[in-house]
Amino acid sequence: MALIETARKQTLGPFLRLHPNDNVAVARSAVTAGTPVGDTGLVTREAVPAGHKVALADVAAGAPFRKYDVVIGFAAADVPAGSYVHSHNIAFRDVAHDYAHASEFRPLDLVPERERATFNGIVRPDGRVATRNYVGVVSTVNCSATVAKRIAAWFTPERLAAYPNVDGVVALTHGLGCAMEMTGEPMAILRRTLGGYIRHPNMAAAVVVGLGCERNPVDELFADEGLSAGPLLRRFVMQDAGGTRSTIEAGIAAVRDMLPVVDRVVRQPVPASHLVVGLQCGGSDGFSSITANPALGAAVDILTRHGGTAILSETAEIYGVEHTLTRRAATREIGEALVARLRWWKDEYSVGRDTQINGRITQGNAAGGLANILEKSLGSAMKGGTGPLMAVYRYAETVRAAGLVFMDTPSFDPISVTGQVAGGANLIAFTTGRGSCFGSVPAPTLKLATNTPMYRRLADDMDINCGAILDGDETIESMGRAIFERFLAVASGERTRSEELGVGADEFVPWQAGVMN
Asked: Fewest CB within a 10 Å sphere: which of 71, 130, 133, 393?
């Protein structure tokens, strides 16, 4: 199966059967015991919460449960028809797939350039396009984090009022930079991440602050990342600058010098091909694969046909459905690169650990109706749409390919988004069923709710209600078009809910992948 089908749903009273071959259906709302399952002749044997599943047939012990015609686990014991189906009676074990690398690759049917959508972006001198206009204060090590925060905090909204085109001065601090491996991938990840943020199109200027004796010194960061100091990229080492107070004062002065230049920008129409959208889901539920994730996938299909780029990530959250991506890969090498990353997570990094890729999902995901990672991955992969997979990247590696690409990241949202932004994402699209209140800078986050009750409950945090699909007011296609239009609006400067709330600076979390000592 190359694609997870989302258009063959059958309504069975208060339940949805997502594929004709499924032996479970999903409750659209909470039901009590004895509730008829449409016209099947079945009634529920127990209460079934909203987003959770009921068995549509007797399932013998060891037999598979199927959702979207994909195996999501195996019956832990005999499960009679009408039973509530969840982690208590679904056993998790690995499922083998035929990867059939590149066997179903189809080139994108691109929209002619003259017909492509546009947004009002900020064109940098080197031709790259920004969706926001920030000044960053970046620490190379945790030891300089307080100084970086104090520099950025000086620039209050009142002090920035004279610079209306500046979105903010933001501190990007972290807990790494010393007592870690001095060479190898962990240090490379940190430097790629910091370099990616410093160079990001949305970062008009930056001040970089180090302590002076750390394992990630400013000199080596600049050398490894090809950075050169100048009027819009200043660097300070606390032990050389006179300590904490002197470095704070020098950093404030440097940013003050930058602001008049940073403020001199004018938005102008640019093609949607300049959009690079990081795809995320967090706090998922049983509706994620029915509403928000496939709708986001529909938006991605539009975006990539207009020449834009979408970054699918969270490696553990495609486990079990990775064959739907390898078959669409542009080349065998791309498919094999994806499998290699999954095997590293499964066979090296997570062996013997109580982790998601080994079957254990979060309490929130379970409460929302997901039994294990196989079921969660069904929805997660849908965010990438139906187009070809064009490249696979390491964490925080610069994304250069257009179309759908994959970046290897953990599933923890702040770490995953940090890698995507470092790679060049200038917008984040984040689906949630439980209600993740996430935000990010310098790339804004657009949050998509999977269900209407949560959207209404957390209206200050949610941007789009994909629950309208479940309510019957929208289709996946119409919602996908609406999401794409919001991409263009937010990229043009429209503020997201998380921006209005000031959420994002503390969500900068580079991946700590190595040994600390």
From this structure: 71
User: What tokens does 503 get?
Assistant: 């959420």
**CA proximity to 287, closest of 85, 1, 11, 18:** 18
User: Residues near 315 by Cβ (< 8 Å), separated by ≥ 6?
Assistant: 341, 342, 345, 357, 408, 409, 410, 411
- Give the CA distances from residue 509 to residues 172, 243, 372, in Å, rounded to whole numbers and listed in that order: 9, 26, 26
DSSP code for 347: I
DSSP conformation letters of 456-509: HHTTTT-SEETHHHHHTS--HHHHHHHHHHHHHHHHTTPPPHHHHHT--GGG--
Kindly write down the DSSP assignment for every residue of 99-162, as one continuous string. --TTTT-----PPPGGG--EEEEEE-TTS-EES--EEEEEESSGGGHHHHHHHHHTS-HHHHTT
Mapped onto helix, strand or coil, the DSSP state of residue 432 is: strand
Could you read off the pLDDT of 301-319 as tens digits, one per residue? 999 999 999 999 999 999 9
Enter the DSSP assignment of 72: E
Per-position b or e across 93-113, b if 16+ CB within 10 A of its CB: eebebebebbeebeebeebee
Which of left, alpha, beta for 396 (phi over 0: left; psi -120 to 50: alpha)?
A: left
Buried b (16+ CB within 10 A) or exposed e, 265-300: bebeebbbbbbbbbbbbbbbbbbbbbbbbbbbbbbb
Any idea what the Cα angle at residue 16 is, between residues 10 and 22, rounded to 5°? 75
Tens of pLDDT, residue by residue over 221-273, are 999 999 999 999 999 999 999 999 999 999 999 999 999 999 999 999 999 99
Other Cβ atoms less than 10 A from the Cβ of 347: the count is: 9
**Total number of residues shown for the chain:** 517
Q: pTM of the predicted model, to two decimals?
A: 0.95
At 5, is the pLDDT very low, low, confident or very high (cuts 50, 70, 90)? low
Residue type, 172: L
Cα distances (angstroms) measured from residue 236 to each of 52, 57, 208, 214, 240 = 54, 67, 6, 13, 8
3-state secondary structure of 53: strand
Token pair listed for 491 = 């990229």
In this prediction, residues 37-58 reach a mean pLDDT of 97
- DSSP letter, residue 231: T
> Given the DSSP bridges, would you call strands 53-55 and 64-67 parallel, antiparallel or unpaired?
unpaired
Helix (H, G, I), strand (E, B) or coil at 403: strand
* Dist. CA 283–CA 100, nearest whole Å: 32
**More confident of the two residues 369 and 357:** 369
Query: Strand 168-172 and strand 134-139: pairing?
Result: parallel
Contact 313, 292 (CB under 8 A): no
Name the one residue in this structure whose structure tokens are 């998380």.
498
